[in-house]
Amino acid sequence: MSAGRSKPSEEQWLRHQALIHRLYIVEEKPLRHIVDELRGLGFIVTPSQLEYKVKKWNFKRNISKETWVEIDHCIRKRKREGKDSEVILCGKRLKLETVEKETDRYRDRSIFAQFKSEPNGSLMITTNTQVSVSTPPSFSVEIEWPSTLPWFRFPQSEMKIMLKRHLGITRGAQKIQREALIPVLFHQGMTGPMNTVQFGASKLAAVIGAWMPESYPQESLRRVHSFVNGSQQDFLLEAVSMLAYMLSNNLFELSHEVPNNRNEDEWRKIMTILKTSGLFEIRINLKTLNSHTINGFMENLYYAAISRMCYTEGTADDTENMALLQWLLAVGQTPTLPHQKIFWYSSGPIGRPAGLELVNRLLEAGANANTWIFGGITVLCLTIIQRNMSNSMVYQIAKLLLEHGASDMLDVSLHAAIRRRVMDPALIEIIIHHGGNLLTGLDNTCEFLWGWEPREESDYTGGDESKWEVADILIYSHTALSVAALAGLLQTQYVLDLLTSRNPSKSITDFVTADVLISAVISEEFDTICLL
């Protein structure tokens, strides 16, 4: 190599590894031809450098005599069992005529060979781990996919380069049980280990090819080869790539409202692969890569983690989900407050310390405090109407939301705070401080809030509910005082005091409208009527 020529970096090799595999193994291009193609892409290497690298990567396209003998024994044994066979080398399916020619060439035809026992009791090839023999697929799964698919840009992305950089440096060094993790990658619905030898490379490749696009023919075979015959690093890299595709395309059902054993098993396997791969050690903004696959992977993982906080409970689960969400935010995931109603119920995550911490982290990261729940209610309103949630917890959440810009429907939130059975003056005052208006009148179309009260959370008696239903019919416009008059004497006195202290030039009669008096009558509380 000339003195002026720089040595290719490992990252350059990694970026072109998939292309080199296709050219060298699948297309069987000469080394010189591959060097020319790489040069056209701006990657300058010598034939000797390329030869060294393909050997280091264990890319083989020749089979030794000893291995052909073993392949022949394996094929004949399978034939006696009524099975057809095909030979796969380094993720490439060998032509039938090549297999027949080479096995016939090296077959032992001596009289003694007839009395020899099988050299290998199993159907595995022991002399070359890059070779496998399996049943050919019953139908072709090789489809010509459009080259513009976003997925085809993922293997060339910097994310894959960074992942390879972390493999083996962090948690990738620990030993993993492939057989236990592979089922989730093939989406077979299994909860136990998967015997890859029993399934065979061709069948596994057919499973992948049925739902995952191939950038070139037999790419699925190469993936299977990495799973079964490759190093742990190869396995983890392919596993993360496949999970990125599967998660970005919603091939997992991880956000079920009713968790089941299969979902739990899939989630555990997914998290094991992602943790062990070193993915969570990456600390750059992945959104800057402008990859639809990466963006979809991050977003669906984000919502799955939040959904799990809604439907699973426990310190370990909360800690794991929180760590996942923190990592996603650190690498560029857009923070959004949860849209699930159950998240904001006292029986959901918000009723646990982890929920409050999560809301705080999301708001600090820039989540919109004016988030609306599906159906037309803000998270602030929904939090306030949780009757079984302590005043302290409601106040802490409301304070966080208000301090981070919650401003939609503040008057409705104010009315909800007044209506709480155990009134919290601090909650009312902080809403007023951030813009809630005691004098604003809301017609019944704005008082839909009452219909959102979770029945299982309500501690109202039947009579209490009925008076609000009557008020919805008879009251034209609700103010803070009319809501207080319905709620009780304590609330009425408190709101009156607030009104008079903030409006010293007005008398009590200026605030007591017909709707306020009607509310007092509906409440059937004599002391409230007398006060007004």
TrEMBL record:
Protein's name according to its UniProt entry: Clr5 domain-containing protein
Q: Which residues form the Clr5 domain?
A: 9-60
UniProt superkingdom: Eukaryota
Q: Which PANTHER family match?
A: CLR5 DOMAIN-CONTAINING PROTEIN (PTHR38788)
Question: One matching Pfam family, short form?
Answer: Clr5
Q: Which Gene3D superfamilies match?
A: Ankyrin repeat-containing domain
Task: Enumerate the InterPro entries for this protein.
Answer: Ankyrin_rpt-contain_sf, Clr5_dom
Q: SUPFAM superfamilies from the xrefs?
A: Ankyrin repeat
